[in-house]
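seq:
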Amino acid sequence: MNLRSPAILVSARPHGETAVIARLLTEEHGLVAGYVAGGRGRNLRPVVIPGNLVEVELRSKSDSQLPFARLELVQSRGPWLGEPLPAIAIGWATALTATVLPERNAYPSLYVALGALLDAVCNAGSAREWLRGMIAYEALLLRELGYGGAVPAAEAELAPLLEIFALQGPLIERYLLADRKADVMAARGRLRERLGRMV
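struct:
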């Protein structure tokens, strides 16, 4: 695999002493993984943050080899990771995406929707302004993977949105995360708890 593309970094797992295995969502190639040499070093640590928009260059010698990835930061989500609610929301959206999508299947609508959701989380005045987008993104994931999912009305208030968010959780757990680790769903539980304090 050889490609150069804008991408949303959705997970970064340490590998060896200084490297990172990054998973990135691209519009045309879907979810791709790459080995980032020095990803835990001082220069790349601010780049290898889930939620960041990057320009990725992947190069591999064969299809069976994990590609080497070079990342250039385009837009950082780092400043919002110091805020508890945005940090949890970014963490949940990226962890869910990294966990449930198969690699190398293009989902252009999910790429666009995740970018819009992350922008909303980072730029909205409060969670009331991006919660509908989070629910819509989860519903889109369910639909794209063949399990349905409903989008709330545009005028929905916070309490009904939280109810829809609560009802959608078991669908995600049953259909998308059935064979996955429970710690992914725990991130959603933390987000729901924080949002519940706003009512």
